[in-house]
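Tutorial handout. Part one gives the primary structure; part two gives the three-dimensional structure as C-alpha cells.
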Amino acid sequence: MSIYRKYCHEITDAQGNLTKLTLDYPDNFNFGYDVVDQIADEAPGKRAMVWCNVEGEEHTFTFADIKKYSNRMANVFRAAGIGRGDRVMLILKRHYEYWFAAVALHKLGAVMIPATHMLTVSDLVYRLNAAKAKAIVCTAQNEVPQKILRALAQAELSAKLWCVQADIDGFENLTTAMAAADDTLKRVDTKATDPMMLYFTSGTTGYPKGVIHEYSYPLAHIVTAKYWQQAEDNGLHFTVAETGWAKASWGKIYGQWLIGSAVMVYDFDNFDPKQLTTIINKYGVTSFCAPPTVYRYLVRKGMADMPTLRHASTAGEMLAPEVFRKFRERTGLSLCEGYGQTETTLLLANFKGREAVEGSMGTPSPFYNIALRNKAGKPVGVNEIGEVVILPEQPGKQTGVFTGYLDNEEQYRYVWRGGVYHTGDAAWMDENGRYWFHGRFDDIIKTGGFRVGPYEVENVLMEHPAVVECSVIGVPDALRGQAIKAIIVPGAGYTPSRELEMDIREFCNQKLAEYKWVRIIEFVDEMPKTISGKIQKNVQRTQK
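Part two.
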C-alpha cells in the first residue's frame, strides 16, 4: 500500500512522467499517526525497516513494530514532561532506536534535533546554548555520553538524559524504561504548521544555522523518494547517511514510508565499499542513494554484481564524470544526480522517465516552481548563469521549505527577500531544460573577466589518477584579478613534486578552456572540512 496518495494529487504527461504534484493534507497532519500508525493498522505485517550492524546483529521491523515501540518511547518521554514544542536532541548514529524516537517525538508534537556523534564538546556547547534542548537521547558509543556531560557543564545547562542499550552514570537507560512502558498512546493534538525538526546546517562560513521545518515537511519528500530515488512499494531502499544529517530525512524514513518502501539501515562506523555491496545483495536492496564519495570508492575498488539493484542516485557534492561512466559500465545503471538544501527538500534531479545526463542536476522538481534569476531578480536566458530560486505558492511561504532560522529572523528575511526563496547557488540551463551546477556565489572565481565555477575545474582534476581529493579556489592575481588554484590530496603511490604538479596541470589544462586553466597547485595531506565532510573553501582562501 502507498499511503501517499491520500495526501497528494499527481499530474502526468502522455508518457506517464510526473509534471505536477500538489499536496492536500489536514490541518493536524502528523507523520506519526497519519502515516506510521495508519499503515500499521491497515497492514501490520508490512515491512518498514531492515536493520543490521557490523557485529552481525539483524532485525526486521514491521510498521506494527514501529507503532508499538514509538508509542512506548513516547510514553517514557511524556512521563518525563516532554510535550508539544519541547526540543529533544537525538544523537543515535544508525541505531534502530532513532526511528522509534523520531516517530515518538512527532506523536508528542515535540521538536526533534538530529545531531551527529562526531560533534566535539564545543560543537555541543554551541548547539545546546542555541537550541535550549529539554532532553537528549544518545548512543553509548564514541564517548558521546561523556561529551554531553562535559558540554552541559560548560554551558551551565541541564537536560533530561537518556542513553540506549546501556547503563551510563547520569543517564536513564531508555531501553529498560521502554520495556516497562505502555504500548498504546492516545493521539496528541498537533498542527501541521507546528515546528517539527531543527537541523543545524554545516555551512562553509560562520557558525551553523538552526533550520526549522514544520510537520508538513515529510510530505514534500514524496517526490524525493518516488521520482528521484525511485523507491518502490514493498521494495527496499538504502540511503547511506548517518541520522544526524538531513540526508537521513531525505532517504531513510519519510518519503520511503509514505510510498510503502522499507528502508535498509546498516549500522557502521568505518566505510567499507565491499561491505556495502554485500549488504545490498544479502538483503535484496532495490534502490540505492549515496554521496559521490561512496560511488568513487566503489568504482575504484571494484564492485560485485548487484542483481537486485534497479536504481541508483546521488547528491551532496561533485560527481566526477569518470565515476558516472564507470558505474554505468559496471552496472548498467545511470547515476541520477539530485540537488537540494537542508532548508528545502529536493529541488532539481534526474527524475524517473528521463535519461540521466552525466554532470547535470537534471530538471526542476514538479513540486516546486524553480527558476534562474540574475542579481536584479530578472530571468536569465538559456546557457546564462543565474541563481536558483523558488517562486513560492504564496509570497514567503512554501511547503517543504524551512519556516525559520533559529533566533535569526534577519537571515531568514534575507533568503526570502522579495517573496522569493534564494538558494545562493549558481546554475545555468541548457536548451533541453536541464540545469547544470556552477557553484556557490561566494565560491565563484572571477578571473580575467570570466566567471569560473570551481566544480567545473574540480571535475577535470578528479579524472587524473593521482588526485584523490581536490578543491579549487580563486587567489589574488595582479594580472587576472584572481588566479585559479588547485589544492590536491595525492593518492597512495604519488609523492608531491614539481614533476607531478606539471603533469596534473598539463593534463587538466588540455581539457579546459584557457580562462579556466589551473595556474597554481598546492599538495596537502588533508582538507579543512566541516563536521559533515564539506570542504571549507573559506578557510583555504585565508590560508597562506
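Part three, for discussion. The mean pLDDT is 94. The longest strand covers residues 467-477.
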